[in-house]
Structures are given as structure tokens and as C-alpha cells.
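[Discussion] Sanity-checking designs against the backbone

I'm trying to build intuition for which residues belong where. Below is a C-alpha cell string of 201 positions. I'd appreciate it if someone posts a full sequence so I can compare it with mine line by line.
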């Protein structure tokens, strides 16, 4: 199982943003146990979909407003109705991960048993850093491509040449990161299933 713990950055110097993020996560992502405020400016949810977990973690980390910790491992079943009441290895690893995320590359970390966790974490941190360093124009072009538009259609929408669209996508490593995001999501799904199957150490 996958547990994601999210902690608001610089919360003492700004407004509480937990409720607005809770509403967005509830409307955009399907969780096994929905995200809930667990304490102060922290929230937590339980997922069983590695691809969705990666998308969610990168999405939230990209805002620059949150530290995101992903924990992978077993959980005590049956899961309680409330996320905050959950217990088990994945919850413990999520706590470790969010604490490390506060000082980690891209404000994102992943914890779990064995070397696979470290490898997936490295991929996610690289993706988070590339996402954070993209220019606004590169991100704009990439978002439109991810919505299914062709480069020619993106060019027409942005009123620029197709060559300019291609250059923006290349500078942002858009196709490379899209592929790595997909691979990382599938790797997390496989890893989580292995841990759930009781093969963790």
C-alpha cells in the first residue's frame, strides 16, 4: 500500500492552505482512503495506484508550497474509515519520508524497505527538479501536449511557430520526463504490490 503525507512549507509565515488542497485532491484523485488533515498543517491519504501516486506527488511538490513524503509497505487491515487512524509500515515510512522531504531535492522523498525505494526516490526527485526549473513558456507548451494537442495545434493556440513549440518542449525535457514519470509510476505500482504481498524484509 502507498501512504502519502503532505506538510505545508513555511506555514508559520503564511495562511493555512490545507483545506484548499484537500478539496483539490478529493476532486482530482481517487484514494483508497481520502486525504485528511492529520495534525496542524499536515494531511495524509492512502492509495493503491502507483501511477496515480506519482502524478499526485509531483503535482503537489511542483507548487513549491508543500513537502511530500511517500511511504510504501504493509498496513493493518481492515483499514479504518478515517485515514488518520491507520497503522502499519507504510504509515511509518510516510512519516520518515515527509521529514526528509523538507530538506530533499524537489521537496519530495520516498521511503520503504529495500534498495528499490532509493531508486524510485532518485527518479522522483530528478523529475521534481526538472519540473521546478522549467520556464513558464516551456511548461505551457508541455501542458497542452499532455492534453492531447499536436505540436501544430499548440503552435496555433499559442500563436507561435511549430519550431518554437518544439524548442520549448526540448528545453523542458518534456518527452523525456513524461516517459520517466510513466516508468516511475509503474515501478512504484510493482514495488507496492511486492510489499503488499508480504515479501518485504
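Best answer:
Here's mine. Compare freely.
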Amino acid at each position: 500500500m502507498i501512504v502519502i503525507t503532505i506538510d505545508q512549507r513555511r506555514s508559520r509565515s503564511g495562511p493555512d492552505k490545507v483545506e484548499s488542497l484537500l478539496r483539490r485532491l478529493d476532486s482530482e484523485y481517487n484514494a483508497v482512503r481520502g486525504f485528511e488533515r492529520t495534525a496542524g498543517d499536515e494531511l495524509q491519504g492512502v492509495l493503491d495506484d502507483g501511477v496515480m501516486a506519482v502524478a499526485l506527488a509531483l503535482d503537489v511538490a511542483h507548487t513549491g508550497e508543500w513537502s511530500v513524503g511517500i511511504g510504501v509497505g504493509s498496513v493493518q487491515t481492515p483499514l479504518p474509515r478515517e485515514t488518520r487512524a491507520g497503522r502499519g509500515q507504510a504509515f511509518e515510512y510516510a512519516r520518515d519520508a515527509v521529514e526528509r522531504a523538507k530538506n530533499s531535492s524537489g521537496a519530495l522523498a520516498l521511503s520503504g524497505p529495500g534498495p528499490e525505494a532509493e531508486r524510485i526516490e532518485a527518479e522522483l526527485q530528478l523529475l521534481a527538479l526538472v519540473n521546478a526549473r522549467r520556464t513558464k513558456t516551456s511548461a505551457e507548451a508541455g501542458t497542452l501536449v499532455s492534453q492531447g494537442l499536436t505540436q501544430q495545434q499548440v503552435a496555433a493556440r499559442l500563436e507561435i511557430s511549430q519550431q518554437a513549440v518544439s524548442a520549448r518542449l526540448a528545453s523542458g525535457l518534456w518527452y523525456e520526463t513524461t516517459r520517466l514519470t510513466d516508468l516511475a509510476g509503474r515501478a512504484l505500482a510493482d514495488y507496492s504490490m511486492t510489499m503488499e504481498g508480504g515479501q518485504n524484509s
